[in-house]
């Protein structure tokens, strides 16, 4: 059911994301201001994540999840009707509150109802909903954007409404409690659990991966690529949707194998593969812009390299979808670690807040190649931290030996 909900959310988001910076630009704003529309959504998510954790504890995952989806849906409709840049940025910010309610409640629930040797695959199944929607969304997004730059907001709202209905009807409380009782350990002090997690280098590495993934993939890339396609490559906005589609298809194909690899070979190796793939992918985007500047926007080699770069980043997405969250589940160890999950989620949100702003500054002051190159370089310290982290996956032999 969480995968079905994720599909509805990702379908709408995939349709909307290529249109956001271009729609913002229609109000005659700078690249930095257009990027702020992406950042404000993540900023409110970041600020409200602790609130979402409290609401989950008091009202339950299902109610918080459904309410969050409805908040994003209503705010999306209003954003599509906005008449100026100020209205657009405020309404996208309101949507961030609902998004934090959904993401924190869904992830906290998932990590509490699966055993350690299934966490990578469970995360992959959950993320497969996002990915299948992500494959479909950008393809439809090119068609929807062709109708109107406002239309994606309304389609996104419709998808979120369907997801909310699924959450209310099909996530039965009795069944959730039964699953939780099988896995959950004894209750511990939440702040003490967070301190313990922060002292664990594996948890810190997973948080850094989530921060970097939010900054590069969901923040900087989501803002820079639509603008790069329109202003750098001088092609229609639909091309960015097709580029994101390529990345989503590759990620979808590799998602379940990556989850299996995470559960059998280890979390650390999976995150290393993801970091290297993201580094190479962003490096190739840098070369793509250099080719455009040197050979002209009609150069076929630049177009091919653009799609190759996004395909490689799809590999990174497949491994990042399962390994870091599996580490978080290992650290929690079946206990109710909502605040640990919230802190992990906040790292991604912080990256999404900063990423578009950095992209806007670099694009306005320098060029697209600088934005892509700096994103690639930021992967390096995260890769070092992942190399140094201990492996958190305990094999069955290790578990029996400890017992």
Structure description:
The protein is an all-alpha fold and 403 residues long. It has one domain (2-402): Growth Hormone, Chain: A, CATH 1.20.1250. It is built from 17 helices and no strands. It has helices at residues 2-16, 19-25, 31-59, 61-80, 85-112, 119-147, 151-170, 173-183, 190-198, 201-232, 238-264, 267-295, 300-320, 323-332, 338-365, 368-388, 396-402. Helix 1 (2-16) packs antiparallel against helix 7 (151-170) and helix 10 (201-232) packs antiparallel against helix 14 (323-332). The longest helix has 32 residues, at 201-232. The chain is globular and about 60 Å long.
Task: Kindly provide the radius of gyration, computed on alpha-carbon positions and rounded to a whole number of angstroms.
Answer: 20 Å
Shape descriptor:
globular
How much strand?
under 5%
Mean pLDDT metric: 79
Helical proportion, percent range: over 70%
Which homologous superfamily in CATH is the superfamily?
A: MFS general substrate transporter like domains
Q: Label the CATH architecture.
A: Up-down Bundle
Counting helices, strands and paired strands, the structural category is mainly alpha
CATH classification class: Mainly Alpha
In total, how many beta strands? 0
**N-to-C SSE series?**
HHHHHHHHHHHHHHHHH
Taking the alpha carbons of the first and last residues, their distance comes to 34 Å
Q: How many separate domains?
A: 1
As for the CATH topology, it is Growth Hormone, Chain: A
Unreliable parts = 396-403
Q: Give the number of helices.
A: 17
Report the oligomer: single chain
The major sheet is characterized as: none
